[in-house]
């Protein structure tokens, strides 16, 4: 294949893979969600629900597909307003409120001058909406919903669920999350306003499903006559069929990734990495391209960051992992981490340097790397050593980082392996 053709072939496949997909499967869950939204919009029947499923299983695609279908119905735009919030962006209630107002075109109602509590502001927003000529049903989509549980008093969640619970105005609140334990994270008063309706997107994992994944790979990697001449299409698609049906290495890479993280997102990522290897000198995909692509996909970005830490910093990471085990994942502050580290360091002569300022510097570096993230929205400013942080790494990641750390003192290795439970 000529280099020009291979470049356009790469571009064509990449665009196909990255294109937003039509939602497939999970018909029952889709109908369920569609009905709930329809009832809110056309029957003014408020409700709330959670959409739960592992990363990349299609939650966002499902919501988009349902909203697209609704948008095509007559009068939807007149009768409903969709408000999108995302826990990663709207990290406290004030930001959430601002974004809500913007999406409702009510920026002038709640502006910087209004300092009342969340419920007051919410009431203000609703009354302005009610006074407008056209009462619209409000559909709130809360992506990364579990992160809203970290907001001060969970006011936003409480007020939204309360609105849906009271059913005075048509409201539908959908929380989208990958955390199965999200209900445990809700405060009791929030839970009591929630409908307890959960829609689960749990991917199946079997031979039939895997074969359909191979079928998807085929459809992504094929080229067609809309952009290429017939001879080229025939030759390329024949090559793809041979690759997927007969090349053991390529097949095994797709299977391994499927077994590790059964989501389409990661299969797409694997194919993108594989086709990025195509070029003038490499005009066909080989098993080796897939093997290298698999390495790229499964190499953990965190591990590369952790490779750059100092011994003191890795000690703090270990201390935080242990605190996470003791306090079951609750946030930690500097004092807790420092005292855990001191306990260890005092018992080991090689760790004489326990200077508080040095440890503070190391702790700040971990924060800059976002290995720890501050818990926000606690009103009055806390002294920095008592500021709470969420630790972002899993026990497995810490274990791998310790293993990879060259010349880590033996006592630190042993301390890392300590099982506290
Ligand atoms: N059932 C499905 N139908 C169509 N596409 C899907 C489906 N499941 C996953 N995908 C594809 O997988 C990718 C990830 O999907 P999506 O972003 O909807 O997942 P998610 O569950 O929202 O993930 P996250 O938890 O990371 O937000 C998208 O490219 C999407 O096209
Ligand atoms: Mg999503």
From TrEMBL:
Set out the biological process GO terms recorded for this chain's protein: DNA replication initiation
Q: Which cellular compartments is it found in?
A: Nucleus
Ranges for the AAA+ ATPase domain?
45-204
Among InterPro entries, the record links this protein to:
AAA+_ATPase (IPR003593), ATPase_AAA_core (IPR003959), ORC4 (IPR016527), ORC4_C (IPR032705), P-loop_NTPase (IPR027417)
The UniProt entry's GO CC annotations, sorted and at most eight, read: nuclear origin of replication recognition complex
Quaternary assembly: Component of ORC, a complex composed of at least 6 subunits: ORC1, ORC2, ORC3, ORC4, ORC5 and ORC6. ORC is regulated in a cell-cycle dependent manner. It is sequentially assembled at the exit from anaphase of mitosis and disassembled as cells enter S phase. Interacts with DBF4. Interacts with POLQ.
What role does it play? Component of the origin recognition complex (ORC) that binds origins of replication.
Q: What is this protein called?
A: Origin recognition complex subunit 4
| UniProt organism field | Cloeon dipterum
Lineage start: Eukaryota, Metazoa, Ecdysozoa, Arthropoda, Hexapoda
